[in-house]
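Hi C.,

You asked whether I'd gotten around to modeling the 154-residue construct. I have! Everything is below, sequence then structure, no commentary in between.
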Amino acid sequence: MAQAQTAAHEGIHAEVTSPGRQLAAGAIAGQISGLIMAVVMMAVFTIFLGRAALLAGLVLHQAGPSLAWGLVFGGVLYAFDIRRGAALVLIGAITGLASQVVDVNLVLPAAMKALHGHDIWAEQVPAFWSWAAHLVFGLGLAVFPWVNDKLAPA
């Protein structure tokens, strides 16, 4: 019976997993996706903007937003019992765009002004590239099924 249920949902849902495993897979997917986003941003800064990106920004990005949004992504997938497919990619894209709105448009301006007196991100990163990079982050979360499968018990 359990095999029939798994087979019936194959292609859309993988086997049922625990919330902890989903969150772990989401966090790891967030780290991988954050690295993808960082590579894209470093390439944009070097090739199109003629500036070097900072390594400190990469470390802060991985330790904070990439981890947090990966956990949110894993939690949403668990809540809606989604393991793969177009819905996963769509939720990833929405997560990436939400991270732009929340982090770059709401949190970062206040934090930057409090720390530096001005919003360095807004000054240094053109809006188009910021939105594009966050969409890349969201689409990069599509590594989730691969990560989730790797976390499966042997």
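If it helps when you're writing up: The chain has a mean pLDDT of 84.

Thanks,
B.
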